[in-house]
Design brief:
The chain has one domain. It has five helices and no strands. Helix 1 runs antiparallel to helix 5 and helix 2 packs antiparallel against helix 3. The chain is rod-shaped, with a radius of gyration of 26 Å. The two termini are 41 Å apart.
Length: 192
């Protein structure tokens, strides 16, 4: 009788162990699907940057012909936009190379942590270093250099400042969306 109970316990243990193994596989699949969905948020922000860059690369050279900016400002602006596109491509490239459904989760977490750090560094260091001098130059171009005679330069730069503020808010929203998605992916992986 004891032998039968022992054999029955062994069978129940084997069944329980198999169920637990299946449960881990299901959890990992669900987490990988969640990671893949969050990876789409990161990819979407890159597409927004590229779309905005194409738009600006068309608009800024055309604004030179309206005598709103100097040729130097239009050229520097286009070069700055191309620099930002190249940097965005380089920051996103390791994330694009990941197969979120098959790659080792430790590798995915490492790549996401690096992406998040680079994206935050871009916002905190590069963006002010590029945008503040460029914005001051733009205000000078609109308000003083190419302003109609007798106009108040401070009134002329108000639309530029409002546009810069709105653009900054939209850009920050997409920045946070990408960084938050990367952090959520890292958190999901750490929860396993």
């Amino acid at each position: 009788m004891e032998e039968m109970n022992f054999e029955e316990m062994r069978n129940q243990y084997a069944i329980l162990k198999e169920q637990l193994n299946n449960q881990e596989i299901v959890n990992e699949r669900l987490i990988r699907k969640s990671i893949k969905m969050k990876g789409k948020d990161i990819s979407y922000t890159k597409k927004v940057v590229y779309g905005s860059a194409v738009f600006c690369l068309i608009i800024y050279p055309l604004t030179y012909f309206t005598h709103m900016w100097s040729l130097a400002f239009a050229i520097v602006t286009c070069l700055m936009i191309m620099f930002c596109v190249i940097a965005t491509y380089r920051i996103h490239k390791p994330v694009e190379n990941l197969n979120l459904m098959q790659d080792d989760l430790a590798t995915v977490a490492r790549v996401m942590a690096k992406f998040k750090k680079q994206y935050d560094n871009w916002l905190h260091y590069v963006t002010p270093a590029i945008l503040i001098p460029w914005g001051i130059w733009g205000c000078y171009e609109v308000g003083w250099s190419h302003a109609p005679e007798g106009s108040n330069p401070w009134i002329l730069i108000i639309p530029l400042l409002v546009g810069a503020a709105l653009g900054g808010l939209v850009g920050y929203k997409y920045h946070r969306k990408a960084v938050n998605a990367a952090q959520e992916i890292i958190d999901d992986i750490e929860s396993i």
